[in-house]
């Protein structure tokens, strides 16, 4: 027996402590941990020595086969079988865009989330994008947000897989978005172009990301430095809103809190898209009793769109109920009305609010509820006034 | 006494609270604005804040920094000891004064 073990036992007995068999077993395991494998090894060596030569060869061969082939192949087979049984192929719409085809696109995302929240272990959700003809950055961002933010992903060991659009134009939009750098892909080459700031993401208010985007935009706008005085505060306001309001810690959410931003330069403008996957403006603003009751009634059209517009107007909608808060969205509206942020468009809940240049927005109702808020706007390169 | 935010603090101010991210209004107020304001007040000077040279200021940053100063110190005479310079964005001065006045009404 080990010296320490003897010592420990002796001292405990001398002191008159009550020592159970369980304690002895635990002590033995602690002090004699190396003795068990050593005993097994000695027995095994004795056994091998007694075996005839053929038997030894057979054992060696068996050990080699097990270590080299059998074990990994078996595991892979199990994984493949599991995946094949639980793979859900979800075909994306031909026009995959939240602005151009909101109902079909949101319905698609709903089906993805429904499949993912079926509480099924080891399931695979396959995004079939092959037949997609038009794909826009907003849809790619939301797809990425689902893959990254869905809380059920780790709990139920979900796997997301997919393919790329066959259409060459849609394929280049997909690759250049930077989507592939967030997923495991064979096509790992980063399709960076000088005309895009690929999808960036964060949780907190990130002034440095805002700076990168501002510098990119200013360069593309011919070093018009006045624009960054509008753009940087707007980005900070949106990040702050996401951090403060979009994700209520007291309510159950299916998504973790995160925002996504994408910027691209085209021939005549620089476009910006900002997304969060929180509760959305209509759910997080303060509503009166009548608004809460009529919000889901189909006869009261554009309710959510009206709530978005009302929040933009700053009609004391802030959830914090503090007078000094809720100034971020009015700042965005002010710049949209001054034509500084052009073509501002917001989707949230069941509403869409689009500013075409005038003071009054176009309010539109969406059939399926969009979980989150999507902002997009642009800066014209020639600095021309948009015709009213 | 002079303080240029872009030179002495950051060119890219952030949001409202320290917990929300770097270069927030609360951080600016606690590290710079509040100590400098008290120093200026003790010395019976005016603290001159220069807003030029940066990437622009979010309303949440400005409100938390200047409105927050009034709320923190519970001092209705904040405007008497502050002066502002903003040649690039003159509108900022109006906003800051509005935030200070609103916060003064609440204390």
Largest two-chain interface: A-B, 27 and 27 residues
Mean pLDDT rating of chain A = 77
Q: Classify the oligomer.
A: heterodimer
Which H/E pattern describes the elements of chain B?
EHHEHEH
Shape of chain A: elongated
Supply the CATH architecture of the largest domain in chain A: 2-Layer Sandwich
Structural class computed from helices and strand pairing of chain A: alpha/beta
What is the count of structural domains of chain B? 1
Total number of helical segments of chain A?
14
Q: Quote the beta fraction of chain A.
A: 15-25%
Which spans of chain A of ≥5 residues are poorly predicted at pLDDT below 50? 1-17, 70-78, 384-388
User: How far from one another are the termini of chain A?
Assistant: 94 Å
Spatial separation of the terminal alpha carbons of chain B: 27 Å
Q: How do the strands line up in the largest sheet of chain B? A: 1-2-3
Estimated radius of gyration of chain A? 30 Å
Give your account of this protein's structure.
The complex is a heterodimer of chains A (388) and B (107). Chain A has helices at 3-14, 21-31, 35-50, 53-85, 102-116, 137-149, 152-155, 168-176, 207-220, 228-246, 281-284, 289-294, 303-313, 328-337; strands spanning 87-91, 95-96, 124-128, 134-135, 159-162, 196-202, 259-265, 269-276, 342-354, 362-380. Chain A is of the alpha/beta class and 388 residues long. Chain A folds into three domains: 3-83, no CATH class; 86-192; 202-388, 2-Layer Sandwich (Heat Shock Protein 90), CATH 3.30.565. In chain A, helix 5 (102-116) runs parallel beside helix 6 (137-149) and helix 10 runs antiparallel to helix 14. The longest helix of chain A is centred in the first third of the chain and has 33 residues, at 53-85. With 107 residues, chain B is mainly α. Chain B has one domain. Chain B has four helices and three strands; from the N terminus they run βααβαβα. Chain B has a three-stranded parallel sheet. The longest helix of chain B is centred in the N-terminal third of the chain and has 18 residues, at 25-42. The radius of gyration of chain B is 12 Å and the shape is globular. Chain B starts with a strand and ends with a helix. The A-B interface holds A 204-208, 210-211, 214, 226, 228-233, 236-237, 239-240, 243-244, 323-325, 327-328, 331 and B 10-16, 20-24, 55-61, 63, 67, 88-89, 99, 102-103, 106.
């Amino acid at each position: 027996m080990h010296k320490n073990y003897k010592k420990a036992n002796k001292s405990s007995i001398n002191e008159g402590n009550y020592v159970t068999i369980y304690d002895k077993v635990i002590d033995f395991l602690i002090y004699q941990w190396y003795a068990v494998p050593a005993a097994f090894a000695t027995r095994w060596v004795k056994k091998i020595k007694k075996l005839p030569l053929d038997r030894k060869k057979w054992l060696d061969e068996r050990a080699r086969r097990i270590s080299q082939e059998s074990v990994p192949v078996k595991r892979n087979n199990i994984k493949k079988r599991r995946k094949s049984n639980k793979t859900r192929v979800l075909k994306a719409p031909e026009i995959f865009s939240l602005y151009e085809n909101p109902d079909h696109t949101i319905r698609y995302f709903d089906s993805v989330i429904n499949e993912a929240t079926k509480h099924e272990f080891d399931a695979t959700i396959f995004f079939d994008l092959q037949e997609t003809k038009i794909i826009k950055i907003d849809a790619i961002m939301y797809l990425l947000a689902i893959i990254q933010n869905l809380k059920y992903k780790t709990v139920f060991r979900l796997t997301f897989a997919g393919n790329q659009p066959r259409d060459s134009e849609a394929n280049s939009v997909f690759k250049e978005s930077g989507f592939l750098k967030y997923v495991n892909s064979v096509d790992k080459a980063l399709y960076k172009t000088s005309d895009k700031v690929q999808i960036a993401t964060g949780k907190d208010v990130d002034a440095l990301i805002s700076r990168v985007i501002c510098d990119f935009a200013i360069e593309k706008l011919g070093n018009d430095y006045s624009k960054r005085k509008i753009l940087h505060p707007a980005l900070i306001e949106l990040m702050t809103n996401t951090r403060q309001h979009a994700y209520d810690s007291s309510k159950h959410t299916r998504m973790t809190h995160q925002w996504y931003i994408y910027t691209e330069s085209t021939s005549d403008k620089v476009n910006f898209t900002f997304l969060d996957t929180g509760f959305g403006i209509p759910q997080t603003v303060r509503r009166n009793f009548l608004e809460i009751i009529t919000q889901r009634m189909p006869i009261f059209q554009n309710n959510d769109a009206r709530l978005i517009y009302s929040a933009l107007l700053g009609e004391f909608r802030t959830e914090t109920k503090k007078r000094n808060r809720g100034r971020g969205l009015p700042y965005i509206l002010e710049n949209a009305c001054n034509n500084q942020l052009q073509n501002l468009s917001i989707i949230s809940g069941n509403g869409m609010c689009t500013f075409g240049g005038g003071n009054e927005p176009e309010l539109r109702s969406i059939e399926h509820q969009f979980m989150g808020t999507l902002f997009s706007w642009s800066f014209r390169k020639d600095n021309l006034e948009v015709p009213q | 006494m002079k303080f240029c935010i872009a030179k002495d603090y950051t060119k890219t101010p952030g949001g409202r609270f320290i917990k929300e991210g770097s270069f927030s209004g609360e951080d600016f107020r606690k590290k710079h604005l509040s100590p400098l304001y008290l120093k200026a007040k003790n010395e019976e000077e005016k603290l001159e804040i220069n807003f030029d040279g940066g990437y622009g200021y979010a309303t949440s940053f400005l409100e938390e920094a200047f409105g927050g100063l009034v709320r923190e110190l519970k001092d209705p005479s904040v405007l008497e000891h502050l002066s502002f310079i903003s040649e690039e964005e003159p509108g900022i001065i109006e906003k800051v004064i509005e935030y200070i006045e609103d916060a003064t009404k609440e204390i």
